[in-house]
Amino acid sequence: MDPFGRHIDYLRISVTDRCNERCLYCMPKGYKGWAERADHLTADEIVRVAEKSTDLGFRKFRLTGGEPLVRKDIVEIARRLWELPGVQTLGISTNGVLLKDLAIPLKEAGVRSVNISIDALDPDLYRKLTGGRIEAALEGIGAAAKAGFEVVKLNCVLLRGHNEDQIVPLVKFGAALGMPVRFIELMPLAPGGPIDEKNFLSVADAMKLLSAHDVLEPDPGKSPGHGPARYHRLRNSGALVGFIGSVTCSDFCADCNKLRLTSDGKLRPCLGRHGEIDLMPALRSPTSAAISAALEEAIANKPEKHSFDEDFEVERPMTAIGG
Ligand code: SAM
Ligand code: SF4
């Protein structure tokens, strides 16, 4: 339990701060990487931290980045995590661009749930927002649909002035594939770029836009994949839609169950507060007691809520934290 009575059993592991896309809201302009590649955790170190975390009751794990699929040993990391006794769910968050060839190996390695980012279906807009090719992301989504994962969800960051008109097409696209789409509020985590607070679109506004097309009804069922989204179902189309009100929902942090591990070996109790605990000294220690102590310290340091509404100043951009 953390100091606010929350049961912390979910470790989100960033395996790299690098990415093959350049999303305007995630990666600062001219980003060259946060840490030297040599400072990235090795597969052995990642598995060691995960193993110690299971001793403390962690059961849910998600690989993220940056783009986790750019790491050559991503399938090995997934397989070794899944083999750990105590690991009950293993997910991965990806932009999907490399998923065409990796969906089946990841499924076979033990990955249960895949979140794929797609902020627009319009190819030009997709390129403008991400710097990437939508064809590759769509191929990846198609491969994930066929690979037999337990859950595949689509993620879309809401961007006023950019992708409001993509909301309905994305929901229809997801529903046709049986994939819920989750709409995420923009968090101030990529400074100095063309996307800023004027582009903020709340989940309440997105719900209003969707309500003009169909009736949105709260879906009280268990959320697929244990995430922070609140789900609704569209009455006529039956589509399941998730809303992640990270900024505007006052109770957003109330059931936060996560710690984050950055690719350069820092434990982060909260995405929206700066505190970090350096795990590297513990990882270099011959015994594992120091790793457990660092994990316990991170749990004890979890703040009650993020500070996005308190003149939050970015230190680490999103791509270097791990979303
Ligand atoms: N590269 C992978 C991807 O795009 O899914 C995994 C890492 S990415 C940082 C994880 C999630 O964070 C994605 O869904 C992305 O859209 C979201 N994200 C990135 N920057 C964000 C921001 N400033 N506000 C809200 N969500 C953001
Ligand atoms: Fe890369 Fe994902 Fe960030 Fe986009 S959101 S730049 S795909 S890490």
Number of helices: 10
Radius of gyration over all CA atoms, rounded: 19 Å
Number of domains: 1
Instruction: Identify low-pLDDT runs.
Output: none
Q: What's the β-strand tally? A: 12
Structural class, by secondary structure, is: alpha/beta
Assembly status: single chain
What is the class in the CATH system?
Alpha Beta
> CATH fold name, please?
TIM Barrel
Output the helix-strand order.
Answer: EHEHEHEHHEHEHEEEEEEHHH
Helix content: 25-40%
The shape, in one word, is: globular
Question: Compounds present?
Answer: S-adenosylmethionine, iron/sulfur cluster
Distance between the termini: 23 Å
Strand percentage: 15-25%
- What is the second-level CATH architecture? Alpha-Beta Barrel
Average pLDDT rating: 91
The name of the CATH superfamily reads Aldolase class I
Question: Could you describe the largest sheet, including whether it forms a barrel?
Answer: 12 strands, mixed
Description:
Helix 2 (74-82) runs parallel beside helix 3 (99-109) and helix 3 packs parallel to helix 5. Strands 7-8-9-6-5-4-3-2-1-10-11-12 form a 12-stranded mixed beta sheet. It contains 10 helices and 12 strands. Strand 1, helix 1 (43-55) and strand 2 (60-64) form a beta-alpha-beta unit. The mean pLDDT is 91. 30% of the residues lie in helices and 17% in strands. The structure holds S-adenosylmethionine and iron/sulfur cluster. The site of S-adenosylmethionine has 20 residues, from strand 3, strand 5 and helix 10.
